[in-house]
Structure formats: C-alpha cells, structure tokens
TrEMBL record:
Gene Ontology cellular-component annotations: nucleolus; ribonucleoprotein complex
UniProt keyword terms in alphabetical order: ATP-binding, Helicase, Hydrolase, Nucleotide-binding
Annotated ranges, domain Helicase C-terminal: 334-509
Annotated spans, Disordered: 68-113
Limits of the Helicase ATP-binding domain: 138-312
PANTHER family: ATP-DEPENDENT RNA HELICASE (PTHR18934), ATP-DEPENDENT RNA HELICASE DHX33 (PTHR18934:SF118)
Lineage: Eukaryota, Fungi, Fungi incertae sedis, Mucoromycota, Mortierellomycotina
Name of one Pfam family that matches: Helicase_C
Swiss-Prot/TrEMBL catalytic activity: ATP + H2O = ADP + phosphate + H(+)
Protein name: RNA helicase
Amino acid sequence: MFNAARNAKRKIITFGDDGETIPSLIVEDAKASSLTELRPDAALNEAVTGNAPEPPSGQEKSINLSCTAVSNGDSNNKRQHIPKRKFESQKPYSSSDRRSGNAAKQPEHVTEALRQKARELAKHRKQLPIFSARETIIKEVKDNACVIIVGETGSGKTTQIPQYFMEAGLSAHGTIAVTQPRRVAAINLAKRVAQEVGTTIGNQVGYSIRFDDTSSKGTKIKYMTDGIMLRELLSDRLLLNYSVIVLDEAHERTLRTDILFGMVKSIQKQRAEMIEQGKKGIEPLKIVVMSATLDAEKFSAYFYNAKIMYISGRMYPVKVLNTIEPQSDYVDAALVTAFQIHQEETAGDILIFLTGQEEIENLEKLIEEYSVDLPTRFGKLIPCPIFAAQDSATQQKIFEPTPAGCRKVILATNIAETSITIPNIRYVVDTGCHKSRGYNAKIGIESLLIEPISKSSARQRMGRAGREAPGLCFRLYTEDSFEQLEEDTVPEIKRCNLASAILALKASGVEDVTKFDYMDRPSKSGLLKSMEQLYALGALDDKGDLTEMGKKMAGFPVDPPYAKVLLQSEVMECTKEAIEIIALLSVDTIFTFPSNKREEANEARQKFLSLDGDHLSLLNVLRGYESVKGDRDWCRENFINGRHMRHVLEVRKQLIEFSERAGINPRTSCGHDYEIVLKCFLAGFFQNAALLQPDSTYKAVVGGLTVNIHPSSAMFGKKRAAIMYNELVFTTKHYIRGVSAIEASWLAQAAPKYFGQRQA
DNA sequence: TAGGCTCTG
C-alpha cells in the first residue's frame, strides 16, 4: 500500500476474480420489446438473483414483458435518449411542497407551458422500456382482479403504469391510488407524473402524506404513503373512492403494506359480492402489486394466483467481488478496501455500508488518519458520513460535488439502501451487516442488534453502484457466506410490537385479528402480547372487542399508549403539555451528538435538563426553541436538530387539530403543576415503571427485569425511588429512554384495575 | 456512558 510502515500491518484484501457480473439491462430499442410467454427474462433474473434463471413454478401465469439487454458499450449512447427521472436525483428531506396548484386558475400561458412540457416528455415516455408493454398491461389489469408486476428500478413502472390506467379509463369510477413506504418518494413521483400529464400537483395528479394532502376531487392518480391509506380505511371501509389500488415496493414488506395486503384483498371480495347482489353504485376494485424482486410467486399465491408480469429495468452492469477469506473486522476491511479502490480503480465515488453512527465516525477518523500518508498523485480521499440522526445541513454535504482529482467515500447506514440516492457512486463496499430492530414477543422486549443482511438486501446495496455507469461491488465476506444469507429480510410484521396495527385493524372492522388473512402470520404470542397491552390500556374489553375508548385511541396518529395519555389529559386538565411532550417524543432525538464535539454537546444540553427527567426537559427545549422562533444558529449552538424540531411543531399542530375534532380542548394547561403531567403519562405507561433497588439498580415493576437508564437521558446517574419510561430496547444492555421520576404510589392511582389484579 | 430505517385523515 501507500506507506511501507503501515503496509506491514495492513495486508491487502484479496477479492475473488470470478465474481458474478451483472449484465446490463439497458434497453436497446423500445420497439424490440416483445411479449414472450411464460418465463421471466433471463438477464433480469440473473441480475436480480445472481443465479442462472429458473422457470417460475407457476409457469402458466407469468408473462415476460422485458426487452433485449445490450452490452454496456452501446448503452451509454442509448441511455442519452432516455430522460433522467427527476425524482430519482432530487435531494431528499426537502420540506413538503405545499403548493396545491390549480391549473384552472393558471393563466393561459402557464397552462400552455405545462402542455408543451408534457408534449416533450411524451416522446421520452414512449422510449421507456415499459412502453411497448403498455397495451398488454392495460389488458391484463382490465381482465383480472389482481396483477403482480415485477420490475427493477428504472423500469418506469411506478410513473408509467398509473398513467396507462388513467389513459385507459380505469379512473372513470374512482381514483387510482399508488402507495409508497416513504414520503419523499410519494411527493417526487407525483411531481414527475403531473409534469408528464401536463398539469400541476393537486389536479389530476396529487399526493397525500402526513401533514400534506394535495389531492382534490378531480385527482385521478394519487401517490400516498401506506400509512395514509391505512388511515383512510378508518373512515372509508370499502375504499369506495378508489378504482385501482397499486401497492408499490411490496418487496419491502413494511408492517403497513402487509396490513394493506389483507385489507384490500378483503375489500375487493366484499365489493365483488355487493355487485353480485345487485347493490348500486359499487364498482369492482383492481389490485396491482409492484415489487422489485422475483419473490413474486409468494405475492401471486396470496392474491389468488394472480398473473405475474416482468419488466426489465435500466441498470448498468455491476461486477460483484467477494473476499477470498472471511474478514474478522469489517470496519478495518472497509478501510483497506476503500484505499485499494482509490489507488487501483478509475474515477467515481465509493459508498460503504456500515451499521451505525459509532462505526461510521470511527471509520471517518481512520480514513483521515491514513490519508495523511497517501502519495499526492492519488488525490484526496474525502470521507462523508451520512445517517438519520444528523441535522439536515450535515446530511446535505454528501451532495456537494467532489473536488477535481479527489474521491468521496460515503460512509452510510441503511439510509443509503433505499431512502437516499447519492449521485456518482461507482463502487459499493458491503460489510454484510446492518442494525436490525427485533421484538421478543414472549417477554415483549424490543432489541436493536447488528445482524447479517439478507441476499435481497445485498443485491439492493450492489445496485447502488450501477445507477449512472457500470460499477463494482466489493462484498467484505466470502461467496459461501453470501450463499448462507437468508433470501429475504424477515417481514416487519414478524418482528415488531403489533399493538398499533391491531388497534388499526379492529377500528377498520376486523373483529378477529387472529384469523386475519396475513401474508406472513405474526406469532400467536406476538398477537396475544399486543392484545394484552391494548386490554390493559382499556382499548379492548374482556371479550377482546374494541371499546369506546379504543375507538377514540385509534383515531389519533400516535402509538396506543400515547393516545391513552392524550385522552387522559382531558381528565387531568393538561392537554397542552401532553400534546407537546408527545410531539417531542415522536421524533428520534432532538439532540445531536457529533462525536468530535461530544463534551460541548453535553454541556449545551445541561441547561435544558429537569431534575424530574426527560419529559420536562424536552418541554424546556421546546420553550427555548419557541422563544428564539426556531433560530437556526440557536439550534446549532445548542446541539438541537432543527429538522426534528420542525417536525415536532408539525406533529403538535396535527395533534391539536385531532384533539379539537375529538372534543378535547388542546389549550387546557396545568400551568407549572408538572406533577400532573407526569401522572397523566403514567396512564399510558404504567406498565413501564421501575423501582430503585438497594444495590442502586432499577428493577421493572412488571416482569422484574433489571433496566439501565440510557446515557442520553436526563435521569442518567440519578437515583430516584421510582421512575417510568417510554421505551425499552436491548442493545448491549436493557436500556430505557424517555425516563422521568414518579412516586410509586401514583401507580395504583394510574391503573387501579391493572395493579389490583396483579396483587390478587 | 450511547441512538438501524421508515411512517400515521
């Protein structure tokens, strides 16, 4: 390597030469596309699975809509014809666009400009690989109740297919809904499609996300988050506003998408039965499931053996290299690999996937340290960390152009796997690990642990190298290790607390949640544990039916214990404070902790801390933030995450609106009598209490587990006889967060039934 | 003494 002394310590990592090469999927010519029956496209299959193609088991029901792949030599030229999709390159975290434009009010020259833009885009739309399959897709959806569409990133499926449906008249009796797991995607897709249609957001094309609904009566295509669709189910149980539901990114298997699978399937059946019975004004519901992987057989089997259509994407080839030997320290291996790439490979930035902030900051320091000895002819290697807890200004740094002759190395968590698309990445370094949230249903405890990723996750990471040009993916594990990985990430529904989902199901009319039609069934103990929690909160009665209180709780866009606190705040007359603290607790953390300024950050935090714990400390931060009207410099000086604070204000606003609608006065305040606020929180969190033991540890009142106050808590190191907490997560220990001091006697007052029963 | 990532009319 670059330094003889260090070279002795740092051996070069050998990667296998014969790693799989992912063929180009760039389409030679849209017209060349033809409908070939029965098999997924070989190139696509190989690209996605890394294996030789196998015929799908249900051969009769699959259709191949993919086009001829060409070598990458031609593809660079060809690609220039294809318009770059704006929504892919836009920076995330832009604040929601609140313009609910109305073309009808636009001056004529503006609408003409929109039409002109749409005409230009129309040419490009026709060149997309998917265009040649247009008629087939329309026909299949018209002829079938459910259709599965598999297509890689860049196939244009999410922007084009809803437009095809609209053009074919499928929106005549209802809106075409397209659900997305992420807000940014919903916004950007809607903006792009509005342009292509020749309109502004809020007319034929709109989006609906939390805090921002741009749809109107005339909206034909509506991009929305899956959470919003779940909310709509509460008021429109048959989704009568919709004619087609497109469930996009189905392979991600978020909890909400999984719940939607079962709900839309049931709604489709109910609507069909009503039509059969001659009910008027009911139209059939079409379901389209879109996924990026070839795990389509599972979706098909679930949706009555629905037909599967395969569409090729537009990805450049990515050569995958595995290490010859297993690596004992993947951070060290990543360091070595980054310098190897920098010295041996052509221009292009590097993206390294790590598991968390600590690893990222360690590697950042190491890269800076070793860069000192790098011969000048190689140019600088610039580390750029990115993870969710950063403030937005820091996050934006990764989008700054790389200085000439230098190379950026992006150090990222999974945020770069799906949420953020970083330009100019040619090299991906995959450590094969991520931090994964788990849930032990039997004891009801969440965990956050480093675990191996799945094969589909590894492929997703690999794909990040081939978005703009052919790339290389260095896997810091052997090919054998890859083969041993699970095929897919375990669906979220099997590894999280289900209380919120069950409350939503119950409130949407599902009486027996154990018999619900899950694609992947959560464990019985998981369901029971969550139902017990809802029962303890008073949301379910002895028979497991939804109570009046449960109905009210389901209406609030917060987790069940917080909803309970909100309802209780009316009784305790502290709604203003309850809403504010819930809003503050609903973001990850409002404090930032840059590792190089840890002491300064801790010092800045001290002035907000309340002796009574985190709930009141958070309230102090909000008061400070409002007194300076959210000044950015104030946030920076106090190590407060401004982006998260703005989110807090939005949540507060929404909770105020919801409270008003529920007949609760959101301005009712307890003044400075903060004891009332803590007692109020105990109404939702009485199961999360712990008592100080003679040995100075805290023992949970329910379950008897020894819990540790998280070092970021205002209560860290404090000894109070009794405490309550909002969250318990196992990492290296059982850490509790959101901790405040209480008095043990408050517990019986907060939940007489619960603690009465337990004593009996 | 330490926080993967989403998301809620």
